[in-house]
Design a protein that fits this description.
By secondary structure, this protein is an alpha/beta fold. The chain is built from 16 helices and 15 strands.
Length: 475
């Protein structure tokens, strides 16, 4: 007599995950959505349905594999599969296998060299880097007729956040990435009916988290998460004239009498970054244009020579209607004046008529100035706006994290080149601290039905006023 395997009824979102059949499927987006259960159940169903299929489950550490998958599956599959601890594999009676491996560092990928799997599950994928995710995914291959799929479960935050957000949330694809290959299934704690029934207090535990963590874990926001350095930054649709409670706005024709600035951070193997700013009579700064030297791979420079970079800057400033004929004040990383041998980068810039003064390189005061600029006053107005065409700023600024070893500093391992030149600009026009009003995005909270809290009590007054403006203009 064969073994009996008990499988509980999936939630609607888990059912969608089970049925998804694209090459890459991502599931989750918040805590408590039933991701680990979905991974184990989908792996079991595939192993039973396809005799001899080879499946891989990956997590960042081995203890996570043991606690979240191996021990549970060994119990659940008793009599249907046997676990070999030396090889870290569950072997089914029909020849199918579920293999397990971890990837805390790049060198852990060596264990996968030459390996082929039909199905790969990367559990908590955002804890891995883009390089690790893609390298593991490359092992999904073979000449048999089994389906070839890579499943990812994920929460906002972590070193893989940027990659997962790009392909599954923003759906911003590069060459050789087919949009039809990618499916994202959002699952919130409220979608996990079993958890809601068995542990109703869990939702309250998430509700009382600090704002950033609550936004990510409870609401699945990919624009804010724990450890985010510029947590003030808001990029939301802006369809009304007063530009409140947002930093990203649609471009407009700037006043020809406003002062124009250029900020610059040099890069070769890493991207270089140029930002052009217009400053109005009230001292509000608008990032109106940018030039970012990045390949299709995040944080990889185009390897232009200094002459190529400054020729392009000169071309833009000679032709663009906002810059042509303007007296532009340039601020740059002081390092471009260093010249151990030959000509410095600053001297090359000067020969092209692209002039700079050394920026203030002090990091902590510089970051404070950026924070001051991004901060909203009590009426929802910041001192810095970004035109929506400045895509490098909009993409990289929300992804930067705090340094684990220097709590007040930014982690320079991130893609920080835009942030650095923004810092140089802000230090050239320092402002005093402004009252910071924390943004709150809990409008029409899905928690209301569980917490029985009136909407007006969930949303602070400034945020309520903002949505009243939106609703008024929508009518």
């Amino acid at each position: 007599m064969g073994a009996t395997i008990a499988i509980s009824t999936p939630s609607e979102k888990q059912r969608l995950f089970m049925q998804a059949d694209t090459k890459y499927v991502a599931f989750g987006g918040a805590r408590g959505g039933g991701k680990s259960w979905a991974v184990r159940t989908k792996a079991i169903l595939l192993a039973l349905n396809y005799q001899g299929i080879k499946i891989l489950i990956v997590r960042r550490t081995y203890p996570e594999l043991v606690n979240n998958h191996i021990n549970i599956l060994r119990t659940q599959l008793l009599g249907a599969a046997r676990y070999n601890d030396r090889d870290k594999v569950l072997r089914f009676n029909n020849g199918s296998t579920i293999n397990f491996t971890y990837c805390a560092k790049d060198k852990d990928l060596d264990r996968l060299q030459g390996q082929e799997y039909d199905i790969i599950f990367i559990d908590e994928a955002t804890q891995l880097s883009e390089y690790q995710i893609l390298t593991i995914g490359a092992c999904c291959r073979g000449t048999n007729t089994f389906p070839k799929r890579v499943y990812l479960t994920c929460n906002p935050g972590g070193q893989g956040h940027q990659y997962v957000k790009r392909v599954f949330i923003d759906r911003n694809y590069k060459d050789r990435e087919d949009p039809n290959d990618y499916t994202f299934i959002q699952s919130l704690v409220t979608d996990n009916t079993v958890l809601m029934r068995m542990d109703p207090d869990y939702i309250r535990q998430l509700e009382i988290l600090p704002p950033k963590l609550r936004e990510a874990w409870l609401y699945g926001s990919w624009n804010v998460y724990e450890g985010q350095f510029f947590e003030e930054f808001l990029d939301e649709p802006d369809h009304y004239e007063d530009r409140r409670w947002t930093h990203v706005i649609e471009p407009f024709e700037i006043n020809p009498n406003w002062k124009i600035y250029r900020s610059f951070d040099w890069g070769y193997a890493k991207p270089f970054s140029v930002g052009w700013w217009a400053v109005d009579y009230d001292g509000v700064a608008y990032r109106i244009l940018e030039l970012y030297g990045c390949t299709d791979t995040a944080n990889e420079g185009v390897k232009w020579t200094p002459l190529q970079v400054f020729q392009k800057i000169h071309e833009i400033e000679s032709e663009h209607r906002w810059l042509k004929g303007k007296r532009i004040t340039g601020i740059a990383d002081p390092a471009i004046w260093n010249a151990e041998t030959g000509e410095s980068i600053a001297e090359t810039a000067g020969k092209m008529g692209v002039l700079f003064t050394p920026g203030d390189h002090e990091r902590l005061p510089g970051w404070l100035q950026v924070h001051y600029r991004l901060a909203f006053d009590e009426n929802g107005f910041p001192m810095m706006y970004v035109f929506r065409n400045c895509k490098a700023f909009i993409r990289t600024i929300p992804l930067l994290m705090y340094d684990e070893h220097k709590p007040e500093d930014l982690d320079s391992d991130g893609e920080d080149h835009v942030a650095d030149e923004v810092r140089y600009f802000c230090m050239s026009r320092p402002i005093s601290p402004r009252q910071i009003v924390p943004p709150d995005k809990y409008y029409e909270s899905p928690m209301a039905q569980y917490l029985d809290i009136p909407k007006e009590d969930i949303i602070p007054k400034p945020r309520r006023q903002r949505y009243e403006v939106i609703e008024k203009n929508a009518r």
